[in-house]
Amino acid sequence: MKKTIYFTLLVFLMMAILPAQQTLKVERIEALTQKEQGEFSFPKLTPDGSKVIFSGPKFTGLFMFDLEKRTIETLNNEVGAGYEFQISDDGQFVVYRSFTFKKGRKFYSLKKQNLLDRSVSVLEKESRELSPPRLVNGKIIYLRNNTPLKIDISSSPQLQKTTTSFSRSVFVRKRTIVLVEGDRQRELKPLGEGIYLWPRLSPDGSKLLFTFAGDGTYISDLEGNILTRIGYANAPVWSPDGQWIAYMVDHDDGHIYTDSEIFISSVDGKQKIQLTNTKDIIEMYPNWGSKELTKLVFSSLNGQIFLATLKTE
């Protein structure tokens, strides 16, 4: 009897000590761009949360919106630059992959653009097989001809390439997740054969977020063991603290999008928060990007960029 009472008191004490599950709520949503300014998509906040970088139509070009000055600046007009571009942790540059056609064949180039003076450096020139880049702990990581490469930009202003000793990252190759760790790579198929989309490592690099086409979005460990099923959730992204997942719930008629809203889920899948609920706007592709949990950006199907300001409770 005494043991039962002691155990009950211990449970109540632990409940009193442990903080309640934090939740997020929308404080306000504002349109950063207007339709007459152009069509934009795939926004990301800079690490300090002061600017938003996004793509033009069909991944062409990169543009930057200054949240204080409320101005848009064209960074470049390169074809393909908007597809999975990366912003450095210090906010000083953006890395992207562009492409050109020669005699009907596509050639990719990897480039780095300085956000201070807008200068562009070519890191890889005209390769037939070149993955979109990843930026992890001051290193640019990418696959060239299925070989993992890195460019270390944290220790020296001189860019040095090597194939050894760098942080882990994930890619999609032939619809399968590829996990790169150092100079090694291995395929991950947590749910068996199928089409894997939008793989992303958690901020601490210990968990994997991905979408399995026709089924839903999941979180697994790096051995492929499923930890959480988020459900129907497209274009999912991690929050800066790794505790939340932002995503879009979209529908189409087989030809065009008919609706889409932005949601947030806790990593355990128990909390689902709807950020948008509009009949005339099709909201898509959310992204935190910055280190601030309270700022989240997304775009609309008609090409506007929006900023959602969140509050924690």
What's the structural blueprint in terms of helices and strands?
Blueprint: H1 2-17, E1 24-31, E2 41-45, E3 51-55, E4 62-66, E5 71-76, E6 86-87, E7 93-102, E8 105-114, E9 120-127, E10 134-136, E11 139-144, E12 147-152, E13 160-162, E14 169-173, E15 176-181, E16 184-188, E17 196-201, E18 207-212, E19 216-221, E20 226-231, E21 234-238, E22 244-252, E23 257-266, E24 272-274, E25 283-287, E26 295-300, E27 305-312
Strand content: over 45%
Output mean pLDDT: 89
CATH superfamily: YVTN repeat-like/Quinoprotein amine dehydrogenase
Distance between the termini: 39 Å
Biggest sheet layout: 4 strands, antiparallel
Total beta strand runs = 27
What gyration radius follows from the Cα positions, in whole Å? 21 Å
CATH architecture tag: 7 Propeller
Strand order of the largest sheet: 1-27-26-25
Signal peptide: 1-22
Protein name: Biopolymer transporter Tol
Keywords: Signal
InterPro entries: 6-blade_b-propeller_TolB-like (IPR011042), WD40 (IPR011659)
Structure, described:
Residues 1-22 form the signal peptide. With 313 residues, the protein is mainly beta. It has a single domain, classed as Methylamine Dehydrogenase, Chain H, CATH 2.130.10. It contains one helix and 27 strands. Strand 25 and strand 26 form a beta hairpin. The longest helix has 16 residues, at 2-17. The two termini are 39 Å apart.
